Amino acid sequence: MGIFSRTRDIIAANVTDLLDKAEDPAKMIRMIILEMEETLVEVRASAARTIADQKEMRRHIAKLDKLQESWTEKAELALSKDREDLAKAALVEKQKARDMAEQLESEIAVLDESLRASEADIAKLQGKLREARSRQNSIVTRLESAHNRAKMREIYAGPKIDEAFSRFELLERRADLAEGRADAAGFGAAPKTLEEEIAELKSSEKVEAELAAMKARSTGKEG
Q1: Contact 131/15 with Cβ under 8 angstroms?
Q2: Which candidate, 114, 127, 135, 141, places its Cα nearest to that of 48?
Q3: What is the value of pTM for the model shown?
Q4: For residue 118, which of 42, 47, 94, 139 is within the disulfide window of CB 3.0 to 4.6 Å?
Q5: For the chain, percent helix, then strand, then coil, each to nearest 5?
């Protein structure tokens, strides 16, 4: 079942009110636009048929005009031959053709009014359709924005973000361990005892004495 029962319903409709009352605004606006598009096609098709009817009527009127001219010529001919009876009969036929032409002219005038109304309806329908499409774009944008916000909230509040922070903490822990190993590398040697330090001094003295002896011997040989 359609939302609108006739073209005037669409023209008078308040799209905002229809959407505010709808349980599913996105679905409702699609239905509204579809029905507006279908109605616009129907109104244009009706206008096209009216224009075609007018063209046919005008062609018929043109034929009736020629027929009137023909009966006028026949009446004049009959009158020239002193056949007033035939002339009168010809004029009667001419009047019939004139009456038919006038009737068609009246019908064309009525169709002109109908066309003007159709043209106005088409303009109003197009305006309503633009309004509905604009509202549809707005609804789609709002729905996408709401969806994206909900998705971001789900990401921030969901297990994925917790898992990501857990990985960060694990990496930080690994970095701490690496730095700890580097700092602890110099912890391997125990502090020297007093005896060890004195023994090193004695050893150093022996090396110095031997070096001095070698220098002395070298100097003696040169002399």
Answers
A1: yes
A2: 114
A3: 0.57
A4: 47
A5: 90, 0, 10
